[in-house]
Amino acid sequence: MTGIELFGLDQVPEIAWIAGPDGRRLRFSAQWQRYTGAPADLAADEVLEYIHPGDRAATQHAWRAFVKDGRPYVLENRIRRRDGAYRWFRERALVLRDGQGRVSNYVGISSDVHDEKRSRERLEFLLAVTRLFESSPDYRTALGSFVEMTIPRFADACAIDLFAPDGSFEDVFVAGDPDRKGALLELRELYRTAPPIGNSSWGAARSGIPEVFSAIDESVVGHEVHSPRHLELRRRVSIRSGIRMPMIAEGTIVGALSWMRTSDEEPYERADLPFYTDVATRVAELVLRKRAEETLQHLYEQQNLIARTLQASFLPGSLPRTEQLSFSAIYASAESAESEIGGDWYDAFELGDGTFCFSIGDVGGHGLGAAIPMGKLRQAIRVASAIERDPARLLRIADASLRREHPDVYVTAFVAIYESQTRVLRYASAGHPPPLVRSPEGLVRRFPDPDLPLGLEGFEKLTTRTETLRAGELLVCFTDGLVEAGKDIAAGMEFVMGSLLDPAFAVASDAAQLLRALALPQAAPDDVAILSLRVAAGTTWTFDAAEAVSAQAVRRAFVERLHTMGADPRQAAAAEAVFGELVGNASRYTPGPVDIGLAREDRGAVLDVIDRGPGFSWRGRLPLDPLSESGRGLYLIATLGRSLDVRRIPGFGTHVRVRLPLG
Fold first, then answer.
1. What is the arithmetic mean of pLDDT over 334-347?
2. Could you tell me what percent of the chain has a pLDDT over 70?
3. Mean pLDDT of the 321-325 span
4. Structure confidence at residue 426 (pLDDT)
């Protein structure tokens, strides 16, 4: 390495390094020395000593693969600071080659992303805490799960001293390794029988003042103990740093929350207080809310009918349907009785000139506490859309209106403006599951990940994005209950995308109900709203099975379309007979809508018929009784067509597909 190269390396404001062709020796920049206190010249294996033990294997594997075959070297790991603390860095490296293509050097940069990563983790943690309480049957179960979920990212040990509504001690919840957990439980029992000397988590709760201990040594421990057994237990817990936080909400002391570290790697600091204060306050709020919900549960059970009526009033009575587009939607309540009303919604309406606004979203929680803000936000979006056509600004206006009365609710929302003439869709998504699009060819893609939910710091960065939909595409929006049924959101999203591959979506007029039946066949553990937009194209018809006049009109249109596809008179007559048998069967036995689709394919056409009936089976032969009506029509259809497929879709209807010879 030349002096010029080394000089340039030291001018980089971030940690930088350069290695020779074999990658075994690294020369680091001056910033590395300032940060770690380590020498600038190190062997590759020596560098690992400054990497967090939990990240060393991944770092070593990535570096060796990079040097061996030039695989991309991009990873995040923790690097030890000169004071022993670790911070997160994002590392990237490149291969430099000479004029003959041979490796001359490897160069890399490590960027400090600790604050960014910590902010992201803390935001995700706050959202996870809210979801935990929402999904738990009661606040005690939620608190037990909460202390466990803090380990090990936010604490090595965690304890909650819970107070009853009258201010007396109710229970304790602890988490940590088995030995520390047992010691913490015994310490809490000692506190109940003999109040501790000096500071304690109870003292922090009673005073309402949080306390941070960045370094705890024997002198601190000795000041607080009041017996040899107390001292022994404190030493078994072996706390090196800690935070004691009062849990206060609505002026009520709910309890005391303590986080503890048993090593010096990431000590608590006063700069951490805002986050841990938010967590303690949020948990206190959720405990109070859960207590109130449990107290009022019997009232909810008595008012189920009122709740269902209120929920229906928050949803639109009808959805737009034109020659250029059609909407469909469904709202499915959660399985539990107390969740008859929730915070999910959908809406779609015309703004004029072929422009439509639609929205879907979810206010965190269940019951009136979620439903009332939901109804207000939905209405605010409608009102704001009269003066604002930019989705991001529209959503901010509606949210600002909601915040005046409900400042603490968390909301995920998707709002879009669609111009049917240009098929341009402009949208903004605040923490909402990304919509999916099914192409006419049966391929499925997803929109980009959303911005932050409403009600969280930083959502002001909400942006408007643009998509252009193709003729025949189906856009599907849904709330997170659809993908969280199995608790694995990524797997849930993959399952929903797989469900949309079903060929019935190319024809079904009620795509939302079809997706509900395929992707969530069992009762929903959470409220689910689904809203679909189909861009009109191709040849499809929908009519009510009981309306003979409509069926005849579709039959005539079907025959006309066959002729435009090149069917000769014999083929058209055979196809019309197949159509008549299928539609006649639906009219006789299945109430409700019938969807018809006709599409050209190589050497023929495909006829799809979807009804809402209980289904039937096809055995590929005539019935044993030649006078029986059952089965004769299907046998005729199979004879006139190239193939016949009959499929029952539980919870939706029956899909019949016939391939017809043409041309």
1. 71
2. 83
3. 90
4. 97
* Type of residue numbered 312: A
What's the pLDDT score for residue 600?
85
Q: List CB contacts of 552: < 8 A, sequence separation 6 or more.
A: none
Chain segment 169-180, per-residue pLDDT in tens? 788 888 887 767
pLDDT band at 628 (very low <50, low <70, confident <90, very high): very low
CB 594 within 8 A of CB 610: yes
Q: Give residue 303's pLDDT.
A: 59
Is residue 201 over pLDDT 60?
Answer: no
Specify the pLDDT at position 427: 96
d(CA 129, CA 225): 33
- Tens-digit pLDDT profile for residues 266-291: 788 888 888 888 899 889 999 988 88
SS3 for 14-83 is CEEEEECCCCCEEEECHHHHHHHCCCCEEEHHHHHHHECHHHHHHHHHHHHHHHHHCCCEEEEEEEECCC
Outline where DSSP puts E strands in 526-652.
528-535, 540-544, 593-601, 604-611, 643-649
Question: Using an 8 Å Cβ cutoff, are 450 and 462 in contact?
Answer: no
Distance in angstroms (rounded) separating the CA atoms of residues 68 and 23: 9
Helix/strand/coil for 434: coil
CA distance 113 to 125: 18
Distance separating alpha carbons of residues 391 and 396, to the nearest angstrom: 9
Q: 17 to each of 3, 36, 86, 112, how far by Cα in Å?
A: 14, 14, 19, 15
Burial class (CB in 10 A: 0-12, 13-18, 19+), 482: buried
Tell me what pLDDT residue 336 has: 57
Q: Is 473 helix (H, G, I), strand (E, B) or coil?
A: coil
Eight-state DSSP code of residue 335 = S
Identity at 153, one-letter amino acid code = R
In this structure, what token pair is assigned to residue 419?
């111009």
Q: How many Cβ atoms are within 10 Å of 348's Cβ, its own excluded?
A: 24
**Pair 98, 104: CB distance under 8 Å:** yes
Which residues does residue 448 pair with via DSSP β-bridges, in sequence order? Answer: none
Distance from first CA to last CA of the chain, Å, rounded?
74
Asked if residues 494 and 625 have their Cβ atoms less than 8 Å apart, the reply is no
Alpha-helix residue ranges (DSSP H) falling in 266-390: 273-295, 297-302, 304-313, 368-384
Q: Among candidates 37, 525, 244, which has minimal Cα distance to 15?
A: 37
- From the number of C-beta atoms within 10 Å of its C-beta (0-12, 13-18, 19+), residue 555 rates as middle
What would the two tokens of residue 22 be?
């074999």
Q: What band does 527 get if pLDDT is binned at 50, 70 and 90?
A: confident
